[in-house]
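PROTEIN FOLDING TASK:
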Amino acid sequence: MKTSPKQSHFGFSLTELLIALSIFAILAVFAVPTMNDSLSDRDLENATMTLMQSIKKAKKVAYAESTFVDVSIVANIITIRKLNNGDSQIITLPNRINVQNDLMFRFNTIGNIFLFTNVNAAAPLANPTVVNTNITLESISNNASSVVSVSPIGHVTS
C-alpha cells in the first residue's frame, strides 16, 4: 500500500480571511465616530489651554517688562504683541476649533486690562471693568464648546 506524504497547510483559507475582515469592518463602523469625537474633544481642550496660557503669558510679560501688551484673537489665530518694541508671537489654534468672538485687549504695565474691544466694533470700549470678557471656543465637528473668562485684572479661568 502506497502512502502519500502528509501535507500540512499553512495560513488561512479565503473564507476565514473574509470572516475576519467582516468582523473588523463592523467594529470599525462603531469605533471611528467615537474616535473622531474623542479627537475633537482633545483639540478643544488643547485650544482652551493654549488660549489661557497665551493670555497669562501676555499679562506676565506686561508686568515683568513694564510694557503694554496687546492680545488679539481673530478666527483661530492668537497674536501677542509688545508695544515697546513690536515683538509679536502668533499662535494658531487647530482648524477644527472656531473662536466665536473676535477680541482685542491690552494689558498695562501692572498686568491689568485697560483697553478692550470687539475687533469688529467701530471704537474700543475703554471701560473693561464692567464685566468679565468671555471667549467661546467651539469644536466644529461635534458642537462641544468651552468658555475662557478673562477678568479686568487679568485673571483667566475656564
Summary: The radius of gyration is 27 Å. The longest strand covers residues 133-139. The chain is about 35% helix and 30% strand.
